[in-house]
Amino acid sequence: MIKISDYFFQPYITPQQQRRNYVARNSVQHSSDIAPSDPQPEQAVQLSIETDASLPIDRVAVYFTTDGAEPGGERGQALHGQVVLAQIAGAGDARTAAAPTRRWHAQIPGQVDGALVRYRIDAWSSSDATQRWVADVFDPFTSPAPAGREFAYHVDRRVAPDWTHDAIVYHIFVDRFASAHDQPPIRSYESLTEFYGGTIRGVTEQLDYLTALGVNCLWLSPIMESPTYHSYNPSSYYDVSSRFGTNDDLRALITAAHARGMRVILDFVANHTSNEHPSFIAAQQGDALLANSWYTFNPAYRNGYLTFFDVPEMPILKTDQQPVRDYLIEAARHWLSDFGADGLRLDNVSGPTHAFWTFFQEGVKQTHPDALTLGEVSGDMRDIAAYAGRIDASMDFPMAREIRRVFALRETPLDGLLAMLAEHDASFPSLMSPARILDNHDMHRFLWVAENDTRRLKLALTLLLSLTGIPILYYGTEVGLSQREGAKNTDPYAREPMPWGDRQQADVLAYTRWLIRQRSQRASLRRGRMTRVPLAQAQGAEGQVGALVRWNDFESTIVVFNNGETPARCSIDQRHLPFSWEGDALVEAHLLTPDGILPLDASAEPLLTCALPPLSAAMFLLRAKFVE
User: 187 with 66, same domain?
Assistant: First the structure.
C-alpha cells in the first residue's frame, strides 16, 4: 500500500524564520519582531533586532513617529519624530545564520489608543563614519527596500467582529460549484486547470441548499477579472470576471444571502496581480513610474521580474509603496461598500510585509469596522502570532495538521490532540480568532487522505464543529467529495466539481447538517469556554478515547470520542468537570455513529456513561446554573 503524502503539511522553514535567516544578507534584521505582538494602549513595546556579529556594529537606533508621518533618521539623529537606542541583549538565535549574530532590544514607550507607530532602524560603527547599515533591505518574499524597510504597528483594543463568534463558514470555489439553470452545466475535463463553468448566479440558485445545510457565511474564491480558472491573480480589482457573471450578479447574490441571514466574504489577493493587469502591461511597455513603484524588474529574476513562486502570470506588487498600498485599500473598500460584502479572506498574508497589513487593516476598519479580515498565514503559531492586530482572524493550519494526522492519516492518537487543545488555544493571540478547517483548495481533500473512509470524516467533522473559533467547511466535504488522485504539490486535485443529486453521499450530508444544527442551536458550542475532560473510566483502544467540554454559565456540551477501531466504554465523573450544579442538568444525549445519529439514554449523576462503537462519538447537552 502506498503511503499518502499530506504534502501541504510537510516540514519546511516557516516564512517568519526565513525572514530571520536574512540577517546574514541584510546585516541588520528585525522581521517585525515585537513584544507584545498586538500592543494595547499605554503598553510599552520591545523590539528585537539581530545584527551580524562579524561586523563592527556597536550602535543600533530606532526612529519612530506617532503622528502618521514617515519616520527617518541616521546614526542616532531623528529627522522626523523620536529616536530610541537599542541595547545589546546577548547572542542571536543560532538558527538564523551560519555565522554568529548579536541580539539587540529597543523599547518604544506606550502610546494612546488609536496611535499608528511607524519606525525605521539603522546600525553603525561609532569608530568609522563610513560604516552604516539599514534593516531588512532584502526580503525572501517581497521587493527589496534599498533605503531600509519601514515597520509599523497600531495601538488599539480591537477584536474580531462579534458576529464571527456565531459564524459557520462555507468555502466555495466558484468555478467548480454550480452554474445557473439557464447557463451551460458544469463541464468535466481530464485536466483540472480548465475553466469548468461555475458562476455567481449558480451560487445564488443554490442558496436553498446552503440554507438547508445550515451555514450562515459564504466565502467565495476570487471573483475578480483574471486569466486563470482559480482567479488568484487579478487583472482588475474593480470588476467581477465576465466568466463568473456581472457586477450586478454579485450584488444580487449578496443581497439574497443577506435576506437569508447569511454573510458573504470575498477572497482578496494583495500580494500579486496577473501579468494582464493594466499596470503591469504599462510597466512592461516602458512606463517608468509604474515600473519603479509597482513591480520589481531585474534580469536576475527568472522571468525578468519578481513573481510569486516564479510563476510568470503572477508578478508581485511593491506593497510597501504608498501608491500601491492606497490602491489596494481602496479596492478592498470597493467590494465592502459598493457590493455589501461582509469581509475579506486575505490570500498569502505572509507575502507582503507586516507593515503593509498594519496599514491595510486600518484602512479597512476606518470605513468598515464590522468587516472581517481573515488571513491566510503560513507557518507555525509564532508566524500567526506575529500578525496579531493586523488581521482579525487567521487560518489555523497547525490545528488542521493535527486533526488530519489523528483522524485521516491515523499517525497519532486522539490523546495527543486533546491534550494540546488548551495550550494551542492559549498560544493564539487573545484578540485574534482562529479559523478551523479540515481541508481547503490548497491541500489534498480530507476524505482522500482518509482513504475515502467516511467514518473518519464524520468523526473529524464532529470535532471541527465542537471546537472554539470559526469553523470553515470546504465545498463538497459535507457530501463526501474526494479527489481522483493526489500527487505531491498538485492543488487542482482538491478542486473537483461539486457533486449534485444522487452523486452526493446522503449519509454524510445528513450527519453534517445535524452537527451544524447543534452548533447553531447551542450557545455553548459557539461561544463557550473549552477544556479537555478527564475520563473516570475508559475501555477501548489506547490513547483513542477522550472527551472535551464547551460551557457557559447556563449550558454545556460534552463530546466524547472513540477514534479507535474497536468498541469503547467510558464514564465521566461530574466532579471532574470544570463546573458544578444542583439538581437535574442532562437535557439530551446522542450517539453519533458511522451509520447514523441516535438518541442515547444517559444519566449525569453520578457518572455520565456511554458505550461507543468504533469511530463514533457521543454528545451530551446539560442545562443548569453552573458554578465554577
Answer: no
Are 491 and 232 spatial neighbours (Cβ–Cβ below 8 Å)?
no
CA diameter of the chain:
82
Domain presence at residue 485 = yes
321 and 310 in one domain? no
Alpha carbon separation from 448 to 192, 393, 407, 561, 592 (Å, rounded): 16, 28, 12, 22, 22
* Number of separate domains in the chain: 4
First to last CA, the chain: 50
* 277 and 266 assigned to the same domain: no
Tell me the average pLDDT of the chain. Answer: 94
Rounded Cα gap, residues 154 and 77, in angstroms: 24
CA distances from 439 to 384, 401, 478, 485 (A): 18, 9, 12, 15
Backbone angles phi, psi at 464, to 5 degrees: -55, -45
Mean pLDDT, rounded, for 147-152: 97
| pLDDT tens digit sequence for 167-224 | 999 999 999 999 999 999 999 888 899 999 999 999 999 999 999 999 999 999 999 9
- What is the pLDDT, as a whole number, of residue 601? 80
Q: Does residue 2 form part of some domain?
A: no
For the entire predicted model, the pTM comes to 0.96
Evaluate whether residue 76 is within a structural domain.
yes
Cell 494612546 locates to 112
Residue 483, sorted as left (phi over 0), alpha (psi -120 to 50) or beta, turns out to be beta
Q: What domain range includes position 302? A: 272-316
Task: Determine the Cα–Cα distance for residues 227 and 243; give it in Å rounded to an integer.
Answer: 10
pLDDT in tens, 220-244: 999 999 999 999 999 999 999 999 9
Q: Which three cell numbers stand for residue 588?
A: 439530551
